[in-house]
């Protein structure tokens, strides 16, 4: 289910599955190691709005390859995202969206291999959380995750890739929706 859903949403958004995987994986990897460097500067509400708008626009452009961006632009975007104090809130929102789209529910209880075998969303959320969102020093290795989840290694890596792609493409969907809202409300222009 997750694999087909990831491919379908990538197609709807006009991005390639493999490209989305590469960018989203880089973002998640950098988040794990860059979390400790999150900006401690407290921004006022207007500054946060402008920061979000800038990051959304850059993310959309990179994902759509409009900027024909290289590795430097990707690294700069990723660094600004992981340093933003609001990133974890957006990451959790995206994981909940994955849960709802895959299983039709959002359940924040821990994955239990005995009773949650049919809940693919819990599996995907757990993989992303344990592998990336806990910070570099608290992240689990792939081997420890698939052992904890009691799933075969090959299944784990397939699910992990789909989880990463869903994360990246749903972040893109969200960024595009928010960008449209800002344009419609006059906060941005098409070419800002």
How would you characterize this protein structure?
By secondary structure, this protein is mainly alpha-helical. The chain has eight helices and no strands. The longest helix has 32 residues. It is globular, with a radius of gyration of 17 Å. The N and C termini lie far apart (38 Å). 29% of the residues are buried. The model has no long low-confidence stretch (mean pLDDT 83).
Spell out the key features of this protein.
single chain, 192 residues, mainly alpha, 8 helices, 70% helix, 0% strand, globular
Assembly context of the chains: single chain
Q: What structural category arises from helix and sheet content?
A: mainly alpha
Strand content: under 5%
- Count every helix, treating DSSP H or I runs of 4 or more residues as helices: 8
Largest sheet geometry? none
Shape descriptor? globular
Rg, rounded, reads 17 Å
Helix content: 55-70%
Count of DSSP strands: 0
| Element-level helix/strand string | HHHHHHHH
Q: What is the average per-residue confidence, as pLDDT, rounded to a whole number? A: 83
Instruction: Outline the low-pLDDT stretches.
Output: none
Give the N-to-C terminal Cα separation.
38 Å
């Amino acid at each position: 289910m997750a694999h087909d859903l990831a491919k379908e949403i990538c197609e709807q958004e006009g991005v390639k599955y493999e490209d989305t995987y590469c960018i989203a994986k880089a973002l998640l990897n950098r988040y794990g190691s860059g979390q400790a460097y999150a900006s401690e500067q407290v921004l006022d509400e207007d500054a946060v709005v402008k920061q979000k708008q800038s990051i959304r626009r850059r993310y959309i452009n990179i994902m759509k390859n409009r900027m024909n961006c290289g590795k430097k632009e990707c690294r700069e975007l990723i660094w600004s995202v992981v340093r933003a104090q609001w990133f974890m809130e957006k990451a959790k929102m995206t994981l909940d969206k994955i849960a709802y789209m895959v299983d039709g529910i959002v359940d924040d209880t821990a994955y239990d291999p005995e009773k949650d075998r049919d809940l693919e969303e819990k599996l995907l959320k757990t993989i992303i959380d344990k592998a990336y969102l806990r910070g570099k020093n608290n992240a689990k290795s792939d081997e420890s995750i698939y052992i904890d989840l009691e799933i075969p290694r090959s299944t784990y890596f397939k699910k992990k890739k789909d989880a990463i792609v869903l994360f990246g493409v749903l972040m893109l969907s969200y960024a595009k929706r928010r960008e449209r809202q800002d344009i419609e409300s006059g906060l941005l222009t098409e070419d800002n």
